[in-house]
Amino acid sequence: MDEAKREGNDAFHRGDYAAAAAAYARAIACCSSGCSLADVLHCNRCLALRRAGLLAEACTAVNESLKLNPTMAKAHFHKASVLLELAGDDTADCAHALLRRAWRHCALLPPGAESDRLRAAVSRRYFPRYYGQLCEGLRTVRVEYFGGERGKGVAAREDVAAWRTAFAETPLVSRAKPGSTLELQTCAQCMRSFVVEEQLPTGPQGSYAARLAAVFHVLQQSELSQGRGFCRCAHCAAEVYCSEECKRVAWESHHKLLCSGGNQGHPYAKLYAECAEAGRVNPLLIARMLAGTLIRLGHAKAQLSWECGNAAQRAVLEAERDTFALDKASEWLEVFVGAPCPSDDDAMFTEHIRLAISGNTSALGWSWLADATLTQVVNVDQFRRLNGVLMQNASQVHPVSDLHLAFEAALKRDFDAGASGATVSVLGVPFGVWRIGTHANFQSLS
Prior knowledge:
This protein is mostly helical and 446 residues long. The protein has helices spanning 2-13, 17-29, 38-51, 55-68, 73-87, 92-106, 113-135, 208-225, 244-253, 267-278, 282-303, 311-319, 321-334, 346-364, 371-377, 380-393, 402-416, and strands spanning 141-145, 152-156, 173-176, 185-186, 193-194, 231-232, 240-241, 395-397, 425-426, 429-430, 442-445.
């Protein structure tokens, strides 16, 4: 094996890539079961075949390498390069997902010259597209990579005046914590909160309570006039939304795979009860993340098509369809890195999520979602990885109702007019009296 490997290396360095690929194949044939060099030899053969222009064979070789070592950063990088050369823009999203995976594995490599060369090669192809995507639609700020110690961050493109919104980011996933003692009426999709009338203090005409109620009624009528108003899921009535549009978006993005249908014995109802009792929100967030990934997987499988290369190349791409689709479906969460965060209840929570999704996909008639694919997405390892992502990247935010926002707008007006002092009058109501500043009641990932 060693002699064949040396012959392959020598042939590669002199530019005889076909001979190099043949030599690496002989070395692989000499490998015994469990050989520690087999993944490297398959990866080397992939590079030789790629240089020789045999892209379909190169893809097969790198797949063998990844079967033996799924965390091999160099193999992910070479596969991404092969796909980009094989099909160009047709597989750009999938190749980008592989490059992202390669970069994540690069971060785990020990320091050294070879590791540094690989990181440099991956970053040259990965970062331009990655940061280009993050900066889409941003004018006032930009996303930059500040190096290994500081990571990525947001930098201003121009001076930002006081009270000006620099940018607004929609959370990828969020929800209110179950079992909270703070009963705000909250949209299950956008987390928009209202103070409901029953929570308002009462008092005689002219009192602070009466003036506060007057502000509330104005806001409520404004909402109703704009066609907004709280509504519930028509199937389970457990999820509450601030509008029909939020209800539709929630159903299409995750809820149709998790809806309990009003059945308290449904796995998702059990999951919610367990989380409420334990005071945990992450399993509910993970359920939405996994459901969203599977819904994206269905879209990706339907949209993939190949208009490139010859029949043999298209056959290779078609064989990779499920992998491409899953990479594309997972892309929205792969930008986050987090070490797995295990706990004793992970298997129970994962099983609740799997059973909820499995039952609902059957009811929806999703014949394309095989049990093997569902298990590939919903499993304990994935649950623990996403829990680590949430623990290291998610942020807790305080609940803010429309009443609070009205106070903030009035405060801004007084600020712009030069008002000063500790108390600012809002229609006769002291700003800051009605506030909730100590409850971390929402969790979001953005």
